[in-house]
């Protein structure tokens, strides 16, 4: 590869300006108030792919937000890389916790602060710029297809349909994704696993109306008290999940795999001080790396009901609600876990309380190989640009579509992410290092180069 760093050096400011333009579009897929903005982000990606030299660029409509597709086929005999990313972002709420407005990107201490800076606009846009670089310097070594979606943060259900209906158009040799994190800027790593997800909302109903908490209190089950108790009962004293059958399919690691997983550097003191917590918490018998990497979880994401306004109102509520996520590991199945949860939750409801369990989107866990030509190309690319071979790690988050790529297209993915866990994804003050942005743009062309070499 020639002139990679030179090209980046001479286009540095523009690369940043363009990303800032994209970050200013509040493409929040979860909130219909931002509908026009989500479409605008898709149009932006289309224009930039075309400018960079992609052919057949199209904003493909779906029942939800569109998928931006484009490709450059230079020779059908060459390997093809399918680049996946997302242009939608999580809601920025609560806005008051941001030090600068979420859709007005700024650079502070070498980091870009904005919603989507890392997840996934910054990381996805590196691929558009790396492609531009390879086109302009006449050294695109593989065919490339781009598929950039706008519903990753809400479960990718329309992308699933698109993938099933466009198998031929999406045929490739590997999927390349930058939507995960690495250990540190001087410790590159590649995720070789992601957790799956089962997500439910529960509604717990007691009396038919809100009641005076003095007149009725003590004589009628309070749905909030009951919900709190039901939730608390779903972990035992060792923090194991108590849903019958929950662990039945969990694939335990071999001793060798467990040793390998723990080779990744991890500083527990740094972990605690970053989060300002006095201690970690979790399932007995597993350490922090294992708890996020290879073990399933159950967590309440939100809980509400009753009176939460100013002052006090003495009321015994009629209803209480919670949103609950379960992170899954191989070989758990999202549908199976959702139904085990439902059955259990219904069974522990006391008489006099009605419960409704509403399943939301889910996704299957994945593991990716560390000995494939694609993984080795990614490792070599990172070694070239970081001067260090990346460490294989397990990511705790989920990208549900990755399992579907495998099932429907028969394609493995390479999760070559450049973010950091400290980038505050989904939180206020999300950021992405300027270093990481340029490093990604620099590394991606080497992946193309080494992947071509391996074929
Ligand atoms: N990019 C993340 C997933 C991620 C982040 C994986 C860091 C590994 C390390 C993705 O955008 C995401 O947030 N996924 C959701 C999935 C969901 C909305 C279906 C998640 O993990 O909560
Ligand atoms: Mn993401
Ligand atoms: Mn996300």
Question: Could you explain how this protein is built, in words?
Answer:
The chain is an alpha/beta fold and 455 residues long. The chain has two domains: 4-194 and 365-454, 3-Layer(aba) Sandwich (Aminopeptidase); 196-250 and 296-363, Alpha-Beta Plaits, CATH 3.30.70. Helices cover 33% and strands 21% of the residues. The protein contains twelve helices and 21 strands. The protein has helices at 4-23, 35-52, 121-136, 157-165, 223-232, 255-261, 268-275, 288-293, 334-347, 373-386, 401-409, 434-453; strands at 55-60, 67-72, 80-86, 106-108, 111-113, 143-149, 174-177, 181-182, 189-191, 193-194, 196-205, 211-212, 299-305, 315-316, 319-328, 354-363, 366-367, 391-393, 413-415, 419-420, 431-433. The strands form seven sheets. A six-stranded mixed sheet has the order 1-2-6-3-7-19, sandwiched between helices. A four-stranded antiparallel sheet has the order 13-15-11-16, with helices on one face. A three-stranded antiparallel sheet has the order 4-5-21. A hairpin with a 2-residue loop joins strand 4 (106-108) and strand 5 (111-113). Helix 1 (4-23) crosses helix 3 (121-136) and helix 3 (121-136) crosses helix 12. The longest helix is centred in the N-terminal third of the chain and has 20 residues, at 4-23. The chain is globular, with a radius of gyration of 23 Å. The two termini are 17 Å apart. The protein binds ligand BES and manganese (II) ion (2 copies). One manganese (II) ion is lined by residues 86, 119-120, 152, 179. Ligand BES binds at residues 119-120, 152-153, 155, 179-181, 194, 197, 361, 363, 395, 397-400, 425.
């Amino acid at each position: 590869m020639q002139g990679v760093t030179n090209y980046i050096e001479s286009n540095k400011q523009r690369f940043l300006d363009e990303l800032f333009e994209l970050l200013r579009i509040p493409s929040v897929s979860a909130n219909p108030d931002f509908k026009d903005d989500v479409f605008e982000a898709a149009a932006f990606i289309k224009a930039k792919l075309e400018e960079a030299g992609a052919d057949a660029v199209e904003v493909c409509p779906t029942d939800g937000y569109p998928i931006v597709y484009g490709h450059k086929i230079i020779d059908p005999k060459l390997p093809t890389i399918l680049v996946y990313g997302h242009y939608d972002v999580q809601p920025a709420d609560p806005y008051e916790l941001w030090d600068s407005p979420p859709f007005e990107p700024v650079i502070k201490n070498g980091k870009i602060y904005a919603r989507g800076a890392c997840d996934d606009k910054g990381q996805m846009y590196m691929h558009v710029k790396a492609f531009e670089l390879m086109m302009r310097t006449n050294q695109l070594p593989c065919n490339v297809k781009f598929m950039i979606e706008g519903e990753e943060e809400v479960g990718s259900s329309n992308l699933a349909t698109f993938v099933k209906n466009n198998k031929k158009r999406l045929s490739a040799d590997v999927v390349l994704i930058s939507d995960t994190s690495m250990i540190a800027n001087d410790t590159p790593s590649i995720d070789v696993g992601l957790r799956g997800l089962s997500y439910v909302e529960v509604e717990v109903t007691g009396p038919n109306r809100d009641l005076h908490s003095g007149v009725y209190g003590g004589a009628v089950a309070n749905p909030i008290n009951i919900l709190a108790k039901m939730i608390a009962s779903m972990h035992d004293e060792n923090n194991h999940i108590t849903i019958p059958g929950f662990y039945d399919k969990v694939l335990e690691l071999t001793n060798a795999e467990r040793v390998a997983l723990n080779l990744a550097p991890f500083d527990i003191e740094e972990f605690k001080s970053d989060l300002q917590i006095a201690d970690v918490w979790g399932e007995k018998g597993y350490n922090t790396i294992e708890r996020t990497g290879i073990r399933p979880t159950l967590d309440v994401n939100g809980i509400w009901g009753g009176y939460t306004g100013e002052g006090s109102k003495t009321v015994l509520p009629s209803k209480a609600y919670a949103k609950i996520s379960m992170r899954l590991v191989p070989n758990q199945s999202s549908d199976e876990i959702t139904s085990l949860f439902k059955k259990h939750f219904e069974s522990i409801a006391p008489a006099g309380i009605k419960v409704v369990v509403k399943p939301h989107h889910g996704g299957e866990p994945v593991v990716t190989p560390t000995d494939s030509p694609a993984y080795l190309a990614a490792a070599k690319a990172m070694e070239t640009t970081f001067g260090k071979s990346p460490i294989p790690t397990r990511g705790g988050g989920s990208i549900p579509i990755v399992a579907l790529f495998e099932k429907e297209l028969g394609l493995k993915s390479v999760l070559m992410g450049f973010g950091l866990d400290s980038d505050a994804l989904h939180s206020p003050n999300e950021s992405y290092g300027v270093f990481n942005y340029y490093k990604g743009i620099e590394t991606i062309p080497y992946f193309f180069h080494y992947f071509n070499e391996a074929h």
